[in-house]
Amino acid sequence: MRWALLDSKIRSPMTANGELSNVRRIFVRAPNWVGDFVMATAAFARIRRAFPAAHIALGGRPFLQPLIAGSDWCDEFLPTPRAGGLRGLLAQIRAVRQGRFDLAVVLPNSLETGLVPFLAGVPLRLGYRQGRPLLMNRGLTVPAQRQLWQKRVGPRRKPVPMPRYYKELLDVLQLPGADMHPQLCVTQEESAWVDADLEARGIGPHERIVLIVVGANFGASKLWLPERFAEVARHFRALGYRPLVTVGPSEVDLGKRIAEAGGVQALVDPVLPLDKLKALVQRCVLMVTGDTGPRHLAVAFDRPVVCLMGPTDRSYTDYCTERTELIQKDLPCVPCQRKVCPLGHHQCMRDIAVADVVAASERLLTRWT
User: Fold this and answer.
1) Topology match between the domains 4-138+147-171 and 188-368
2) 175-214: per-residue pLDDT in tens?
3) The domain 188-368: what is its CATH number?
4) Domain over 4-138+147-171 is classified CATH 3.40.50.2000
């Protein structure tokens, strides 16, 4: 993909190194969703390697902070909850201004995330510039494509895998390194907590755990039929695996129903926070999931994943797929990127059969376990 560099001042290595030689304090604004955050971890690590002595503050949604445990990407975490109005926005601006940052790397594309470092007076601000060319004085534009589907017409950037999207942005600064594999760590404390929690549930250290991830936070269009999740759980239980249903805070009742129907356990008491979840993912032998955030935790730990993808565009997450079996049906309306099916029947998810998932799972288990 040809991406246009908008700032000619940073085209040569000599100029770039001179411009960055005085950078001592860096603000990195992380993406807001679990999956995007994990896909950005290679970028976090690349920034740290390029500036080993700099003070790096990672800004992100508070619920994402547990994901950084054990990693050296940053020296501090700046919580950036949804602004929710002028007062919240001003609070973020004050926090960034107090940090006296020399460089801001803004990975999300929203106007709000661009406004914060601009109004905080950060002199170098790197980010994608569509819709905010004055806010980002270093950055890229990407080609747009026009889409027509169900009365929606308008420009949209051409989809590329998000790790590549972040990599290309850092290439503007000509930072060394180009790895796009997500990087997560599990601390001894996190691992010990999960081991103890599983033991309390009657799950031994050598049992083969299959995680059934029920993710409906995005919207109903991504949710596979609950009875089919349950059937998959029963299949693996009959083969001697230990299926476990995992959910987010808003999916507890759904997870309980699936677990009960499948005759397996649901990890809903408590719902695992992200630091404990990543330790659990590291222990599993297989994950069966929709297009969810935990899917990317599995990719980070090189765990086999069967991903049931309905309305979303697979191009955004087409990376590190060696251990992934992605099931998506070829329908005229796919991908629509809608939270609720505008046609009312969620055919893209209904067409995924239990047999499809079982076959994909067995191929992965044969190859990788």
Assistant:
1) yes
2) 998 899 999 999 999 999 999 999 999 999 999 999 999 8
3) 3.40.50.2000
4) yes
Q: Domain residue spans in the chain?
A: 4-138+147-171, 188-368
Tokens of 19: 């411009």
pTM reported for the whole predicted model: 0.90
The mean per-residue pLDDT over the stretch 73-96 comes to 93
